[in-house]
Each structure stands twice: as C-alpha cells, then as structure tokens.
C-alpha cells in the first residue's frame, strides 16, 4: 500500500488523481482545484470557524473538504459521482483535533438539486444554529442551486460559491451596466453579494476555458417586500425580454394597451424610453406591484 498523502499537502489533488487514476467527468462539471491558495482563499472567504456547520456541494476528491475540516468545520456533502466517496473516506484526515472523521463528515450520494436538506442532514446538524454553504460549484447547476438555496427554509449564515467569473459579475452588477439583469435582481433582492476573489483557470484540473470567481452571498436582514416572488421574477424577465429595446417596448406583453402603459409609467415616475438595465431594483419592485399576477 502506498504511503498516505500528507494532510494539507499543496500537491494533494495531483497526488490523488495519480494514485486513483481519477478521470474528471466533464458532464458533471468536474474541475478539481489544484491551487492551495485558491482553496485556502475560499475557506477564508467563508470565515470558517471551529464547529461551523457547512454544507459542501460536490466535494470531488476532497481538496476543499480537507481544508474545511482542518479549519474546524463539520461538513455535510452532496455528491453525485459514486466513484468518489471511497477516495474521500480513505484520503480525508481520519482524526481532526482528536475527533473521528465520521463525527465531522457525512456524505450523501444525491443530486443537490433534489435535496431535502433537513431530511437528508437529519441530526448531523443542529438546525437552531446557522449553516454555511461552501462549494466549488459544477458550473451547470450554478443558477438553479442559488435559487433553490435562496428559497430553502434553512437558516443560512452565508453561501460561499465558486462560479464562472461572468456569472459572478451578473450577481454583483449595478444598474446601468451590461451585466445587470434578471439574475442580478432575483439575487440582490434576497442577498448581499460580495466578490471575494478571482481564480485563474490554471488553478483547476482539468483547466476550464474561463476564469472563476468566489462570491459570498449573505441573506439580507431587511429584505424588500415582495409578496409573490414567482410573479416578480416573471415581470422582471418580461421587462428584459428584449434588452436593446426600451422599457415601454418590453412592457407591451405585460400591458398591451398603450394608454394604460403610459399611465402606469407616469404614475410610477419612470421614463419609458429607458432601457431595462437602467432601472433600479426598487423601480422593478414598483412595476411588479402594478401588474396583476397571472
Ligand atoms: C467543480 S467540481 C469541485 C470538486 C472539489 N470540490 C474541488 O474543489 O476540487 C464539482 C463537483 O460537484 C459534483 N457534482 C456535479 N453535479 C452535482 C450535483 N447535481 N449534485 C451534487 N454534486 C454534483 C461533481 O461530481 C464534482 O465532484
């Protein structure tokens, strides 16, 4: 039996890939982190402290998981690739500060988009305490998982998520910019968005085509009142249906009558000649309130 890979080794990912002949599965968004600075950067951005309860999405071969455990977190992980758990069970530290791995780490083989968090996690976590989500996300689930987490009834302290740089830019965009759109608005009405770090594509194995960013999302304590979120998201989507056209044009589907449209915009004090990206989030909330739900 080959000797154990040292805990916290900066070449851990490469060593595990070599030892277990791991072939990254493109269809599962497998881009394993090889850059120790990036891994430690994610743990720092998440502000992991002893006994933090962390949900990790896609532990892969455990490069990030190991550092979460060493920082003192208790980790519950969702993974879909059934070839990986045996590697994790062998290569993760068997004891962390005198506590056994089984008491600090639990994995469920399940698509996180089908998660029933409280039922899946059971008594592994104390749900009266806040939970942190930390993940180097498989890119293909970035948007749906953010929506699913935002809608879940778990008490989150924060979501620290690695994603494609371009998606991160959309999340933190300001009005008046090209990146500002329905995703920005859906997220910023629920969470504060902070860009923590940018990670070069060279930090992954295999190397993706584009760079990534780590974003920290923190639930807003003072969320704007949006009574029907589905309706709100739909109105916003319709307002952006033709980005290059004016708001007045985009509103035609929602308010077909020209005079009614004019009156609505006048009443709200919004210039119909503006492009949708030039409106503020507060203005979208006002528009949605005036449009009857389907
Ligand atoms: C980008 S890799 C990250 C691996 C590891 N955390 C790292 O940073 O090196 C994404 C991981 O998510 C897993 N995954 C893909 N789709 C998933 C899903 N729907 N639910 C849970 N895990 C998923 C992949 O198998 C892979 O291990």
UniProtKB/TrEMBL annotation:
PROSITE patterns: RRNA_A_DIMETH, SAM_RNA_A_N6_MT
Subcellular location, record wording: Cytoplasm
Keywords: Cytoplasm, Methyltransferase, RNA-binding, rRNA processing, S-adenosyl-L-methionine, Transferase
Pfam families named among the record's database cross-references: RrnaAD (PF00398)
One Gene Ontology term, aspect cellular component: cytosol
Domain Ribosomal RNA adenine methylase transferase N-terminal: 38-221
Residues engaged in binding S-adenosyl-L-methionine: 31, 33, 58, 79, 111, 136
Main subcellular location: cytoplasm
Catalytic reaction equation(s): adenosine(1518)/adenosine(1519) in 16S rRNA + 4 S-adenosyl-L-methionine = N(6)-dimethyladenosine(1518)/N(6)-dimethyladenosine(1519) in 16S rRNA + 4 S-adenosyl-L-homocysteine + 4 H(+); adenosine(2085) in 23S rRNA + 2 S-adenosyl-L-methionine = N(6)-dimethyladenosine(2085) in 23S rRNA + 2 S-adenosyl-L-homocysteine + 2 H(+)
Enzyme class of the recorded protein, top EC level: transferase
InterPro entries on file: KsgA/Erm, rRNA_Ade_diMease-like_C, rRNA_Ade_Mease_Trfase_CS, rRNA_Ade_methylase_Trfase_N, rRNA_adenine_dimethylase, SAM-dependent_MTases_sf
EC number: 2.1.1.182
GO molecular function: 16S rRNA (adenine(1518)-N(6)/adenine(1519)-N(6))-dimethyltransferase activity; 23S rRNA (adenine(2085)-N(6))-dimethyltransferase activity; RNA binding
Function as written in the Swiss-Prot or TrEMBL entry: Specifically dimethylates two adjacent adenosines (A1518 and A1519) in the loop of a conserved hairpin near the 3'-end of 16S rRNA in the 30S particle. May play a critical role in biogenesis of 30S subunits.
Protein family per UniProt: Belongs to the class I-like SAM-binding methyltransferase superfamily. rRNA adenine N(6)-methyltransferase family. RsmA subfamily.
Protein name: Ribosomal RNA small subunit methyltransferase A
Originating organism: Lactobacillus xujianguonis
